[in-house]
Amino acid sequence: MYRLTAGHRAVIGVACALTLAGSALGLAQPLVAKHAMDASGHGRSVWPLLALLGALFAVEAATGAVGRFVLERMGEGVVRQLRHGLVARLLRLEMREYDRHRRGDLIARVTADTTLVREVVSQALVDLVTGSLVASGAIILMAWLDPLLLLLVAATVAAAAVIVASLLAGIRRASEHMQNAVGDIAADLERSLGALPLIRVHRAEEREASAIGARIEDAYGAGVRAAKHASVMSPAVELAVQGSFLIVLVIGGLRVNDHAGSLGDLVAFLLYASYLALPLSSVFHAVGLVQRGMGAYGRVEEALGLPVEPTGPRDAGVRALAPRPARPSVAHQEPADEPPALALRDVHFGYVPGRPVLRGVSFDVAHRRHVALVGRSGAGKSTVFALVARFYEPDSGTVLFGGRPAEEVGRAACRGRIALVDQNTHVVRGTLRDNIAYAVPNAAEDEIRRVVELARLEEVVDRLPGGLNAVVGERGSTLSGGERQRVALARALLARPSLLLLDEPTSHLDAINEAALTTVMKDVAQECALLVIAHRLSTVQHADHIVVLHDGRTAAGGRHEELLAENALYRELATSQMLRPVRGTAQPRGRR
């Protein structure tokens, strides 16, 4: 809690001071009431004392209101800071962490868990401090008025404290279980909503509702256990307060009858006993709330402790690896000694230790050249892209950008040079313009129009009401799969990358658009290096170089005709798609 409130301690001090000032005014009221009772008994005027009592009430209420507002505002500030830190952390986690944790559960830590932490900060923390101090002040004044009655009150409160202490561990365990269950509910619901078409088609609504319902029942059970402990704790506190009040009333009344004390002393003591009830109740409630909040804060701390991507020792290399300008001359030849835009040298990698996916991959992608990766499913093609995008680091071997090892360049510099269009085309809620200009938010209108034309999106822009300003819906629900693919391609081209990665670019395209994309890729290759993954070899048979991957290894490399003649695996892939050798500059035949 001390670390959590860093930067807010001055505000906490002000809030505590206001609360204590209000409490001090409250503690003064029984003394004023005592003097009023004594003055009335001796026939003196009590109106000045009653006026003073009313003024104390008013100032106490105003001070308490200001103090509570300061506390609530501080609590919101702490949670804001905590959520900013969590969001920044979660967006920069190592990709392996997303494989280990459910994303809905991580989202719940930003929302539900931090809300519970806010209650601890804005209520429990100050209630513990001020409640303890106010209770101490009341006890001191009660000891001054009547030590014997104080001992009776202390015995009653101690019994309640023992009961409360025995329940705290159970409250914390139940709260942790409940928060984990809430995180599981969020994760399962996020998964189900993301796969809603699949669920509807297979009529699995009842099954998914039942699975999520089991999580809800788990959270319900944990909540009931926490409520059971709380239901015992609250009456214990109430009985202690009411019991002590009755004891004071009975014993104190008998002592007044025996002339062992004055009526004013008894009234003052009773008022202090009632005043003691509120801070004691707040302290006991705060202790229980802290136990529940510690479970939530433990989950928040766990998320804040997850490893993030290192920024790299020399991310200043962005300048050295700035995107290369497009060359207008198609016939331009690169200098023979210029390093390739991308090179892999004997790269080994596995997502799980002991289970390698890549077993020694090596190839080059020269500037303004079209290179294709082909192979059977599971050969490691998408994993190569994940390494090039620096989502993961090789177990051994080297990935080079412009002749420099990636670890020397830094992630920011590497990613500043590439653009990626993967199989899962990401279209976010917003306008079509927002999605195209995502990588370059301040892009000029003519640049946006250029990539719209290059990606063959003119028909989509003309069809949508509002054109580029049309809202495309959650996950691009108003666009077809092929249209989403072309939006992602336009977004990538707008950044003018030095290396463009296309993962299955024709997976959602029909034959006409596939042929159009082949022409687009030929044009793009004149501006930047192009690395394409394709199962449909018709898309890449005109590539400058084709790399064949098999079982995580580089099996062969060359042009389409060479591989057809020399590599059995490529020939098998081409034969299954009825591809023939390309002659001259003929257009790709595609599948028949």
TrEMBL record:
It is found in: Cell membrane. Residues 342-576 form the ABC transporter domain. Residues 315-336 are annotated as: Disordered. GO terms for molecular function: ABC-type oligopeptide transporter activity; ATP binding; ATP hydrolysis activity. CDD domains: ABC_6TM_LmrA_like. InterPro entries: AAA+_ATPase (IPR003593), ABC1_TM_dom (IPR011527), ABC1_TM_sf (IPR036640), ABC_transporter-like_ATP-bd (IPR003439), ABC_transporter-like_CS (IPR017871), P-loop_NTPase (IPR027417), Type_1_exporter (IPR039421). GO terms for cellular component: plasma membrane. Keywords: ATP-binding, Cell membrane, Membrane, Nucleotide-binding, Transmembrane, Transmembrane helix, Transport. The keyword Lipoprotein does not apply. It is a multi-pass membrane protein. Belongs to the ABC transporter superfamily. Lipid exporter (TC 3.A.1.106) family. This is ABC transporter ATP-binding protein. It comes from Streptomyces triticiradicis. The lineage of its organism: Bacteria, Bacillati, Actinomycetota, Actinomycetes, Kitasatosporales.
